[in-house]
Amino acid sequence: MQKFLIVLIALAAVLAASVFTVREGQVGIVFQFGKVVRESGSDDENAMPKIYQPGLHFKLPLIETVKTLDVRVQSMESSADRFVTSEKKDLIIDSYVKWQIEDPAKFFLTTNGGDYVIASDLLKNKISNGLRSEIGSRTIKEIVSGERAEVMQSALLNSASSSELGIRVIDVRIKQINLPLEVSNSIFERMRAERNAVAKEHRALGIKQAEFIRAEVDREVEVMIAAAQKNAKEVKGAGDAQAVKIYADTYKLDQNLFNFLRSMSAYKKSMTSGSNIIVVKPDGEFFENFDSVK
């Protein structure tokens, strides 16, 4: 019974070592003693490796090993690189690429056994060359304002040669376009100078308009003051004329009383210095006024 269990366990272990699973989105390549198992069991090194699709498969335990390749869509971020336009101007461009393994066997052979680092380097060089060619035939204005989509499409078409790597390029995108730092600084300085010139022009125009408005207000104020002074003189003249008329009418009513009151007013004004002594002649005008009001 124990021997049977041992044999059963050994068979289970052998069976477990003989079965391998390729997950969805992957493919498998089997190695036998370190050599790739090729189609139809051929030993020809030029024959294509045998590709195992997703599912359950069998292999020889301890003799064969399995390497899986991810055939899902991959993203490759490219670091900022310097490109030259048709105007011989430099641009710093960030881009990324979407790619996918199309031919696993060819990918495996051309990338030293499915090395994704080697694949990324080779693909980056191809995409960079395509972008460099497209950007070198356009101006900065064309690239930035209107033809970025055409540049990416052309770079995508130029990358068709990546099929020799067993790779299909799905998309090429430009993330960001910048000028080199030294160029950006000079542009910013020029923009600042232009904005300062515009600001000075606006300030000068504002000062000119302020002076014009101030002169108009001063002129209106002077006109108003002159009109007010004229009106005041007219009113004063009318008041003086009315006062003269009142004096004349009063004089006609009682001449002696009028003379008396006028003399009293004159005497009152003459005593403002503080002295209350008046020396007059007995036959002077002072007594005549008293006699006239008896």
Keywords:
alpha+beta, Tetrahydropterin Synthase, Chain A, 3 domains, 4-stranded antiparallel sheet, 3-stranded antiparallel sheet, 8 helices, 9 strands, rod-shaped
The structural domain count equals 3
> In what range is the share of β-strand residues?
15-25%
What is the straight-line distance between the termini? Answer: 174 Å
Classify the fold: give the CATH topology of the largest domain.
Tetrahydropterin Synthase, Chain A
Instruction: Identify the overall geometry.
Output: rod-shaped
Number of DSSP strand runs: 9
CATH class of the largest domain: Alpha Beta
- Classification by helices and strands: alpha+beta
Note the main sheet: 4 strands, antiparallel
Rg, rounded, reads 56 Å
List SSEs in N-to-C order. HEEEEEEEEHHHHEHHH
How many helices in DSSP terms?
A: 8
> So, the CATH homologous superfamily of the largest domain?
Band 7 domain
Q: Uncertain runs with pLDDT below 50, 5 residues or more?
A: none
* CATH architecture level-2 label of the largest domain: 2-Layer Sandwich
Return the average pLDDT rounded to an integer: 78
